[in-house]
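Entry 14. Structure prediction run on the chain below.
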Amino acid sequence: MAVLPAHVTIVEVGARDGLQNEERVTTADKVNFINLLSKTGLKHIEAGAFVSPKWVPQMADSQSVITQIERTSGIIYSALTPNKQGLELAIQSGIDHVAIFGSASEGFSQHNINCSVSESLKRFEPVMLLAKQYNIPVRGYLSCVVDCPFEGPTPPEKVASVAREMIDLGCYEVSLGDTIGTGTPLRIATMLESVNQNIPINQLAVHFHDTWGQALANIYQALSMGVSVIDSSTAGLGGCPYADGASGNVATEDVIYLCQGLGIETGIDLNQVAEAGWDICQRLGKLPSSKVSLAIKARQQRLKEQ
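Output returned:
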């Protein structure tokens, strides 16, 4: 049997990645959602994104959200900051960590941030310098590590090369994203093996979308190879606005349940996360896509009826 990590850190991306496509969400909804998540045992919550409101209007209130939330000691509150201007706003709001994002695919980079992969990395240099000046740790997101919606399969060696460049820029960790959710365990293993040749496994995280229903299987594969940081979104909220057909991120509830079954400690209260997911989904007028969350609610209903 595979040797699995004893403890996993879950990076909760629901309040940013999960809500960036939702038109009905208000600032108050976001603040309430993050406050609920802060009570669950999560240790890293991505709270917003300082990006152009022209491209992602739902994140235009990130500074208001971050300054209004009830911060809990011991929790990292982070935000996406693709440029120096965004980082300056994040610093004003008192953010703990920030993240930059790039792509392993040239096609996706052009469609997503209108420049080549090498140009995107060059653009991050002033961000990294300013973050270093303020002692703010920077995380790197790397998209399309399996397939690109415009170019097809992404060569693992390309993923490894760009991930290494992000580490060399100064990122403390690179989150490897299966943006369109087409990965399967064997392909994930091949990609991780390639990346791990250049970067220690403890500097890698995984960020899997569940479009083809493979996210949990892929997470198990990553865990079996020593990865111990997983990005997920409560209630399975989210997707990618630049990747047609990409469904939500893997649900935090489903990841916690998987870890519990594997004897891996997360420090997170599953029921409280599920409640936070139901609350935000009611505000959005939709149901959670988390199977675990739906099962918990169904069990609660049965117990009430007994």
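The chain has a mean pLDDT of 94.
Filed with the rest of this week's runs.
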